[in-house]
């Protein structure tokens, strides 16, 4: 709190005593100074102006009017005391007096007449804050002897105290206001801090979710990569196992081929020995016959009549058999395989007939319907191939029905369903090839029976062809029946026969080129052997042209992928030898020739056939690699082919 300067409203020189008040005095200093002045005055002991009589207590003036008058107005009023029984009424009277003062604009109040008291010995201080009795006694003693100057000082001191109190109250009010404002600010700051904390917590939660999502994505990517690596490793292992199995199978087949060659050589030696033995026996019989003729001259006439039918019929029989043997065009190995398969299949059918005639209670019709429905529903999807193959294996392994009977039913139904072409034939044929390979890996007898049914339905799956000869066949219808024409009231037309021939050859080509997770017992090696036997043994005509075109369309892509240059040599030989011979023999085979030439010249063997790849994946994703062929490679192969020998009577062989 700052210092307040007190300015006395009285003359600065009283009775020769100068007054120089110090604004920094406190009340104690003022009292001590007044005491010293009183002592000086009383010590003089005279009634001169310097030694006045002791001050008489004058009535207390109204201190509230002291600062409002002019400098020269010093008008004292008597001390007035009002005593009322009701303090509240007295407070109301005071308020009314204050209001009346404010309305009239005068300095004096209108007071009710009361008794006046003179307090000569008692000084009543207006200060309610002091409780010190000694200080009150000192003030009483001073007031008893106080004059004008002392009263002025007292009034100024009192006013100063009131101002200090008012200032203190104002400062307290200001501090309270400031405290309220600070409290409001603190409250708003706390609210803002809580809001910021909530916002920060929400942001942290979002960041945590974001980081967790990132971590989950990274973990998922990592697990996906690990799974992909495991799948790749498993595919590599499967491919290695399959390659090892293929090598072992090749070794086994090579060994079997060598054994077959040794057996054939042994058979030739035995045949030569048999021929020599037969020649010796014939010579002995001839000699015996000559001797018998000499001995039977007497009965020559009678014997001539008896021997005439036998001498004329035996040569005719031998001639017919010899002529029929010349009519069949096929390689020796192909005919042996056909004979063995048909013989095995005939034995199986005889055994099945005995089982059926034994009175078994098995519902064979229901089994046959199940097989037909399952085969008819085969389509070019992975899941369908897997489910239909599993279904057929379950039917074959059903103990309620003999397996041999079900195998024969399956072979016949496959041929009967796929011998008629449809709009989606290629796709279903490739899918059927996968199903057959899978089923034959579980039941090996299925493949042999199916090949026998192929040979019975189409002689070009052997491959073999029967030439027409008037000496060999009584009528043309007999010849057509021999090569596979069907008779339903009347003989079918050539176009119908060629359509059925093409469908069966497409199914056969799709079967031999199938490369799946399991081993194909009649795979590309057999397809390559079929192509060599076909070109070496069969003559070019409309039937063989249709069979060759259908087979190349389905199996050419896979054969080229495996045999590459050797296969292109075969195609060049076909365009150089087979096609010109066909054009010279059958001028009406133009459409067949165009089809074969278009396949070779357009290099369709470099493209996957329609339906070759199953729509999702093959039975094994690694079973059939991606094509790696291009135009430049094919032209290089053609360039190397020009260096190849062009002998027309070359025999085609196949390599494993």
Automatic annotation (TrEMBL):
Basic and acidic residues: bias regions: 256-308
GO MF annotations, alphabetized: inositol hexakisphosphate binding; phospholipid binding; translation initiation factor binding
Locations listed in the record: Nucleus, Nuclear pore complex
Comp. bias (Acidic residues): 85-99
Biased composition (Low complexity): 630-646
A family per Pfam: GLE1
GO biological process, one term: protein transport
Family designation: Belongs to the GLE1 family.
Keyword Nucleus: yes
Location of region: Disordered: 85-109, 256-318, 624-656
Gene from which the chain derives: LOC110793446
Cellular component terms (Gene Ontology): cytoplasm; nuclear pore cytoplasmic filaments
InterPro entries reported in the protein's UniProt record: GLE1 (IPR012476), GLE1-like_sf (IPR038506)
Protein's UniProt name: mRNA export factor GLE1
Keywords per UniProt: mRNA transport, Nuclear pore complex, Nucleus, Protein transport, Translocation, Transport
């Amino acid at each position: 709190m700052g210092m307040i300067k007190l300015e006395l409203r009285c003359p600065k020189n009283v009775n020769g005593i100068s007054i120089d008040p110090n604004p920094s005095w406190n009340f104690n200093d003022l009292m001590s100074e007044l005491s010293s002045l009183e002592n000086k005055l009383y010590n003089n002991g005279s009634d001169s102006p310097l030694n006045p009589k002791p001050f008489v207590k004058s009535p207390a003036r109204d201190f509230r009017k002291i600062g409002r008058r002019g400098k020269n107005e010093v008008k004292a009023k008597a001390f007035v005391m009002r005593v009322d029984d009701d303090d509240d009424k007295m407070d109301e009277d005071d308020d009314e007096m204050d209001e009346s003062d404010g309305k009239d604009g005068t300095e004096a109040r209108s007071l009710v007449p009361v008794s006046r008291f003179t307090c000569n010995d008692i000084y009543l201080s207006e200060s309610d804050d002091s409780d010190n009795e000694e200080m009150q006694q000192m003030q009483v003693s001073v007031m008893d002897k106080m004059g004008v100057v002392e009263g002025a000082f007292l009034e100024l001191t009192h006013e100063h105290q009131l101002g200090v109190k008012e200032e203190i109250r104002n400062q307290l009010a200001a501090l309270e206001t400031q405290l309220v404002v600070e409290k409001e600010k603190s409250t708003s700051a706390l609210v803002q801090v809580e809001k910021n904390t909530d916002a920060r917590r929400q942001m942290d939660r979002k960041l945590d979710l974001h980081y967790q999502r990132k971590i989950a994505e990274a973990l998922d990517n990592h697990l996906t990569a690990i799974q992909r690596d495991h799948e790749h490793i498993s595919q590599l292992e499967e491919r290695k196992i399959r390659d090892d199995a293929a090598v072992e199978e090749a070794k086994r087949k090579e060994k079997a081929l060598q054994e077959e060659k040794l057996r054939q050589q042994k058979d030739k030696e035995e045949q030569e020995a048999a021929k020599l033995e037969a020649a010796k026996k014939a010579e002995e019989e001839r000699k015996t016959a000559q001797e018998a003729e000499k001995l039977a001259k007497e009965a020559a006439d009678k014997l001539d009549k008896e021997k005439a039918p036998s001498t004329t019929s035996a040569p005719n029989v031998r001639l017919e058999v010899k002529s029929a043997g010349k009519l069949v065009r096929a390689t020796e190995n192909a005919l042996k395989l056909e004979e063995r398969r048909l013989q095995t299949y005939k034995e199986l059918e005889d055994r099945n007939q005995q089982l059926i005639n034994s009175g078994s209670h098995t519902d064979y019709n229901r089994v046959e319907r199940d097989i037909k429905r399952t085969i008819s529903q085969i389509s070019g999807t992975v899941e369908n191939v897997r489910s239909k193959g599993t279904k057929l294996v379950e039917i074959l392994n059903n103990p309620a029905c003999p397996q041999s009977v079900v195998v024969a039913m399956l072979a016949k139904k496959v041929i009967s369903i796929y011998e008629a072409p449809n709009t989606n034939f290629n796709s279903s044929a490739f899918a059927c090839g996968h199903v057959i390979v899978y089923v034959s890996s579980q039941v090996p007898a299925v493949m042999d029976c199916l090949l026998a049914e192929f040979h019975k339905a189409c002689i070009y799956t052997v491959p073999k062809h029967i030439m027409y000869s008037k000496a060999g066949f009584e009528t043309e219808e007999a010849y057509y029946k021999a090569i596979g024409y069907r008779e339903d009231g009347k003989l079918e037309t050539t176009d119908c026969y060629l359509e059925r021939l093409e469908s069966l050859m497409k199914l056969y080509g799709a079967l031999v080129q199938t490369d799946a997770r399991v081993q194909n017992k009649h795979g590309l090696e057999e397809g390559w052997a079929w192509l060599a036997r076909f070109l070496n043994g069969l003559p070019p005509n409309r039937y063989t042209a249709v069979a060759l075109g259908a087979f190349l369309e389905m199996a050419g892509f896979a054969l080229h992928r495996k045999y590459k240059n050797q296969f292109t040599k075969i195609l060049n030989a076909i365009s150089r030898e087979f096609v010109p011979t066909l054009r010279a023999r059958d001028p009406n085979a133009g459409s067949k020739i165009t089809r074969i030439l278009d396949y070779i010249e357009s290099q369709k063997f470099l493209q996957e056939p329609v339906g070759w790849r199953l729509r999702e994946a093959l039975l094994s994703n690694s079973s059939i690699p991606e094509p790696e062929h291009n135009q430049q490679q094919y032209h290089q192969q053609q360039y190397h082919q020009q260096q190849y020998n062009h002998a027309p009577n070359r025999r085609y062989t196949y390599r494993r």
